[in-house]
Amino acid sequence: MTEELFRQDGYASEFESIVTAVDGDWVTLEGTFFYPGGGGQVCDTGSIGGVKVTETRHSGEDIQHKVPGHEFVVGDKVWCSVDWDRRYDLMKGHTAEHILFNSLQRQVPELGIVKIFISPESKYVIVDRDISLEAIGAAVDFANSVIDDNLPVTRSMMDRDDPEMERVRVHLERIEGDEISVVEIGDVDIAACSGIHVMETSEVGALFVDRKVSAGKDGVAIHFRIGEDARKAANQLANTCLRVIEELGSKPEDVVHTAANMKAELETSKALLKKAASAILDAQVPEDVNGVNVYQTIVPADDRKVVSDAAEKRKAEGAVCIYVFGPGSALIASGDKRVDCRTILSETAQELGGRGGGKPDFAQGGFPDADPEKVIAAMRAHVEAALK
User: Fold this and answer.
1) 3-class DSSP assignment, residue 369
2) Tell me: the pLDDT tens digits for 271-315?
3) What is each CA distance from 251 to 241, 242, 244, 247, in whole angstroms?
């Protein structure tokens, strides 16, 4: 059983230990300060005996260290080094996550946490419902006040049946064993957690939310930055916003309203364009090619459904249609078996530099660098050849 020294001191990064087991690249030590990951925090890396440790993991009651290319044997006394800069970033990030979620929950009390992920490259918390940017902004303000107040961060072990567990943010059904690791941040937050944290909130430096994205069925992922990285991200985003304000010719306090108006106007324009495209396709007069109606046109819209619906309608009538629409998209459909749409699209793509596919009666593709008129002319020539 590996002694979990990291529980005693999260700030220790240099230590001596003894190799107790070897399994290929995996080395087990008598005691270790390498954190094997947990609570959403990724594992530590570093070196053992000067050889790089690329991964650390739990294996039953032991903790294994992946040390590719090592030559250790059981009984070796080794000097170990945890990558301190990486570890400290993870400690600060994990503490920041506790502060951020607590701050978000103060804005939306019914908010639930689904998952957290803390790595050097990415830090986020997934919550079970959407939350407005206004609420996130207020939460970030509160989180930074907690950081500035330099509150103590303490860890203790509590019994599962302890009445005090009622005030702990915890999912007891997800935790095994009777003793539970609890992390408390001043009088602001208390939560069950197996990760490693800093001792004082000021060590986090600063917190900034830079993205809110869908996490699918899980909810919404709120990505955040800490310390100097947070300041840089905030400055970059502020500069981007200033450039947008300048492009819109708006005042900073009016930019959201201006953008909302532009979005509404764009949606209206798209709806009108869609309606116009449908009218054009419905009113189009076909040409007779050896007894078969052939429709061809460049559609002034980028609505694939409108074009596809019109094509299916013409195909059902036994006609052939060639439509070019949007930025370089093309479609061919045929109700006449002599016209192989898949072959025609493929041959046209070879001629004009495009790609696509489909079925003999319906095919579509993209011609980003070709003149729409040339695409239609090429397909029309293949159709006429097929109908001779």
Assistant:
1) coil
2) 888 888 888 888 899 999 999 999 999 988 778 889 999 999 999
3) 11, 10, 10, 11
User: pTM for the full model?
Assistant: 0.74
For residue 220, which of 146, 133, 142, 139 has the smallest C-alpha distance?
Answer: 133
Distances (CA, A) of 15 to 30, 48, 58: 12, 10, 19
Tokens of 365: 């593709």
The answer to whether 104 and 139 are in contact (CB under 8 A) is yes
pLDDT digits (tens, 9 = 90+) for 190-229: 998 888 999 999 999 999 999 999 999 999 999 999 999 9
Angle (CA) 36-39-40 rounded to 5° is 90
Distance CA 157, CA 249 (A): 57
d(CA 226, CA 233): 9
> 151 and 200 in contact (C-beta within 8 Å)?
yes
Query: Phi first, then psi: what are they for 195, rounded to 5°?
Result: -75, 180
Instruction: Please report which residue ranges of the chain form alpha helices under DSSP H.
Output: 84-107, 133-148, 227-248, 255-283, 304-316, 341-352, 372-386
